[in-house]
Design brief:
It comes from Neobacillus massiliamazoniensis. It is a peripheral membrane protein. By secondary structure, the protein is of the alpha/beta class. The protein contains 14 helices and 13 strands.
Length: 354
Amino acid sequence: MTKKTIMFTGGGSAGHVTPNMAIINELDNSKWDINYIGSKKGIEKELIEKTTIPYFGISSGKLRRYIDFENIKDIFRVLKGCFEARKILKQLKPQLVFSKGGFVSVPVIVAARTLRIPIFIHESDMTPGLANKISQRFTTLIFTSFEETKNFFPREKTMVIGSPIRKEIFNGSPQNGRIFLGFHERLPVLTIMGGSLGAKKINEVVRESLKELTSKYQIVHLCGKGNLDKNLMGVSGYKQYEYVNDELPDILAATNIVITRGGSNAIFEFLALKIPMLIIPLSKKQSRGDQILNAKSFEEKGYSLTLEEEHLNRKSLLSFLNNIELNKESFIMAMKGSVQGEALKTIIDEINKF
Ligand SMILES: CC(=O)N[C@H]1[C@@H](OP(=O)(O)OP(=O)(O)OC[C@H]2O[C@@H](n3ccc(=O)[nH]c3=O)[C@H](O)[C@@H]2O)O[C@H](CO)[C@@H](O)[C@@H]1O
């Protein structure tokens, strides 16, 4: 049997890459030649180049929502990206393009469309990102994580499936997590994940509250690239990392509570692992407000509490955490009752129809 070829794309932040990695790991290598197009410098390049998947970097622009001179330059970068992506696709002739969104995916999708290559996309957030909004008209099939999102896309080609979660996330060992972190079993573990790129305000308030926090918890702080605080390196019961990859399943297995941004992939992972969460979504000032909606949907279902960034300070952080601690069992019960879709299997089945 001749092998078929699939091209993945998506990037800008890890949330546009980890779902692709989940799918890639489940695809049968004897049936599919797998390739990836991303930006020349983004986190996708770093993450995919750690694997054996061939990676192609193209020019890409940022798709800003505000007026900026950079936008004009970016139009040319996106156009250049379209030509580069078209050249790669023409050469590799994939049967299918799978996009997880993010600005780098737009030139790839436009190029695929001009070559009449079928396109699948997955939207993780409650409301579609700009890249997927632009791309949706060119697609064959659209997958969404949230039920509510289907209203933003044409019904006939949209499937609500949940979030494709990396299988290894489920295989962590709490003991190995504690060994890696140098933690004991006498205090619970609080993990802080400020989104794959970190979160300045969360980092600041956590560090301001460190004395109170470390009296109750052992803390893992995933603070984003360039955000390590050298002055806090030796603090007992406090471990900071810019980003963790292979150790994440063990760390999460050892985690009792998380403080997290409202990035869709992260919160669906915590839901699947039934870890009570305090969600501090990216504010409307800094985004289109998608994380606020993600957080609201989770809070309404009883999985989490939401603390808005505008109200985030030392006092509110400690009080919300206390509330989570007191009602831990009810959050876990609600999460146990959630219907976990078979997102990964559905996507693999649809891909294998080609
Ligand atoms: C600032 C921004 O634009 N954020 C968006 C971005 O978030 P972001 O890139 O932060 O995405 P998510 O929170 O959805 O996913 C982060 C992913 O990175 C992984 N991870 C994170 C930290 C770490 O140390 N190790 C690690 O492996 C998580 O397990 C998860 O799989 O994409 C999400 C999905 O479209 C959106 O909901 C967010 O609004």
